[in-house]
Amino acid sequence: MSTESPIVFVVDDHRSVREGVTSLLASIGLRAQTFRTAEEFLHAARPDAPACVVLDVRLPGLSGLDVQQLMVRTGRAIPIVFITGHGDVPMSVEAMKSGAVEFLLKPFRDQQLLDAIQRALARDRFERQRLADEAPLRRRYDSLTPREREVMAHVVTGQLNKQIAAELRMSEVTVKVHRSRLMQKMNVASLPELVRAADRLALPSRSV
Fold first, then answer.
1. Which pLDDT score, from 0 to 100, does residue 206 have?
2. Contacts of 88 (CB under 8 A, 6+ apart)
3. Is the CB of residue 156 less than 8 Å from the CB of residue 179?
4. Is residue 154 within 8 Å of residue 148, measured between CB atoms?
5. How far apart are CA 9 and CA 18, in angstroms?
6. Which residues does the chain have with pLDDT short of 70?
7. CB 51 within 8 Å of CB 80
8. Are the beta carbons of 79 and 33 closer than 8 angstroms?
9. d(C-alpha 124, C-alpha 128), whole Å
């Protein structure tokens, strides 16, 4: 995990807003990086640090909502605090359903924005820690062969070896060998442990 200090990205096409938010953040010791357009923000390198973005809904080019959907699709999502002077209920509902931390209408109080930013940074810290905790488990899963992953996908659904053998068109002995090897590689001693590992990796599974 990086020990680099948090950063807040501010994306707004109005210079006065960018400068105002930057000054506000500086007053509580938070650093900011500003962008006039969504494209500038999306192409910028991100430091390895807890982060969030204060994002205007209406921007030249891609909109703030476009940015949100694009980050989700590409796996580069970070918590978003939307700000806008032209919001409506459907727009705010869409943003919140897609994971936004807050949707603030201009003019908003400084403390409203700061509280939202602190919640967003806390969410990102939590997610970064979760990913760091799961990194060893992910590496173990990545060490499995394609066939072992295939067998594991069936095992965690509760299927018996003979059922897996029939579905994958292999002998039951071969299934047992793959099962034994994947259990060793995943460093688990029981089926419930394997199912919990699959759950943490967001793999298909069911409770046992």
1. 45
2. none
3. no
4. no
5. 10
6. 1-3, 87, 204-208
7. no
8. no
9. 6
Q: What is the model's pTM? A: 0.74
Structure tokens at 135: 């990194």
- 7 with 32: CB under 8 angstroms? yes
Only one residue has tokens 């759950």, namely 199
- Tokens 């897609």 locate to 98
CA distances from 160 to 2, 145, 166, 176 (A): 43, 20, 10, 10
Q: What is the pLDDT of residues 175-196, one digit of tens each?
A: 999 999 999 999 999 999 999 9
* CATH 1.10.10.10 boundaries in the chain: 143-200
The residues pairing with 69 across neighbouring beta strands, listed in sequence order, are none
Taking the C-alpha atoms of residue 117 and residue 7, their distance in angstroms, rounded to an integer, is 10
* Distance from C-alpha of 98 to C-alpha of 85, rounded to nearest angstrom: 20
Strand partners, 195: none
DSSP-based three-state secondary structure for 195: helix
7-132 — its CATH code?
3.40.50.2300
- Residue in 7, 83, 100 with CA at minimum distance from that of residue 46: 7
Sequence length of the chain is 208
Taking alpha carbons only, the member of 148, 156, 207 closest to residue 182 is: 148
* Cβ proximity of 80 and 96 under 8 Å: no
Domain with CATH 3.40.50.2300 in the chain: 7-132
What is the rounded distance in angstroms from the CA atom of residue 135 to the CA atom of residue 15?
40
What CATH class has 143-200? Answer: mainly alpha
